[in-house]
Amino acid sequence: MIALRAFKDNYIWLFVDPITQAAWIVDPGDALPVIRYLIHNHLELAGILVTHHHRDHSGGVAELMKHWKNIPVYGFVNSSVPEVTHFVKEQDEVTCGSFKFSVLEIPGHTLDHIAFYNDEILFCGDTLFSAGCGRVFEGTYAQMYHSLTKLAYLPDSIKLYCAHEYTLQNLCFAEYVEPGNRDIQDKISVVKKLLADNQPTLPTMLADEKKFNPFLRCHLNEVKRAVEKYTGKHPANPEQVFRYLREWKDAF
After folding, report:
1. Is 109 considered catalytic here?
2. Is domain 2-167+200-213 in CATH 3.60.15.10, yes or no?
């Protein structure tokens, strides 16, 4: 799995089918880094996966289709991305050469947000980040909470290929929420070293995220107490904890 950097902090994920030696990409907000990598490595583009319509995830699709005509572009059934050629929904399967992915509908950040996953790989776009989650722009807090819960039920060993390099900023907030959580402190040390070496902090493993990502820990008393202390409110359930936590993060 190759992380192509775009804009300030986006990752465009690229993987190569070992049989056909053709490349697939996920969320190409910018065509240029993709074109450069493919040409430099003598690769052809076989297809594109799009998790949601935001331009920093889909803005490069049209340009790529000018260079590689008739490639499939997979997106949500109600996607507003005009270049999508194959519309998918919950439980659909997508075949990318020798890779197969299932589709999850995960609204919240946007209403058209989907994830592509198999037993080892999760492309989760802007819904789940390392130590964080996406802002709630188009959906509701309830939708976002249930989308994260859905992702949390995937195998613990699955690797998350998130779309932004937000890990250190997210960990700073996580440490503020749970200052006594040693897993957060250990992760900060690892992440700072990776960034100092100009390396991506991703992918991350779901099992690890459950140890330090506050948005996957809304059911725990430590997170609930932190929310109560900060907001002065008393959430009745983990879904309400999530809403207050996300609002807190928005203002952090």
Report:
1. yes
2. yes
